[in-house]
Design a protein that fits this description.
About 55% of the residues lie in helices and about 0% in strands. By secondary structure, the chain is mainly alpha-helical. The chain has 3 helices and no strands. Helix 1 runs antiparallel to helix 2 and helix 1 packs across helix 3.
Length: about 70
C-alpha cells in the first residue's frame, strides 16, 4: 500500500467503522485487518460507502459536506 496515495475519505471510513458499538475495544484483530484492507484498497474508493451501514454512510456524507464541499 502506498500511503502517499491514501485518500482522507478512506481513513475516515475506516475510523467510522472502528467507532461503532463500543469502539475499538470490541473489534477483533481479524475484523480490524479486514476493514482496514478494504478501506485502504484504492480500487474500493469509488465504493467506499459500501463498507458502511446506512447510519455510517450518513456520517461519511456529513463529514464530506462539512470538510470537502
Amino acid at each position: 500500500m502506498d500511503t502517499n496515495n491514501v485518500s482522507i475519505q478512506q481513513i475516515v471510513a475506516f475510523t467510522i467503522l472502528m467507532e461503532s458499538g463500543h469502539g475499538i475495544i470490541n473489534k477483533s484483530p481479524v475484523y480490524i485487518r479486514e476493514k482496514f484492507d478494504y478501506c485502504m484498497d484504492e480500487s474500493n474508493l469509488k465504493h467506499i460507502e459500501g463498507a458502511l451501514d446506512p447510519d455510517n454512510q450518513f456520517k461519511l456524507r456529513q463529514w464530506r459536506e462539512t470538510w470537502i464541499s
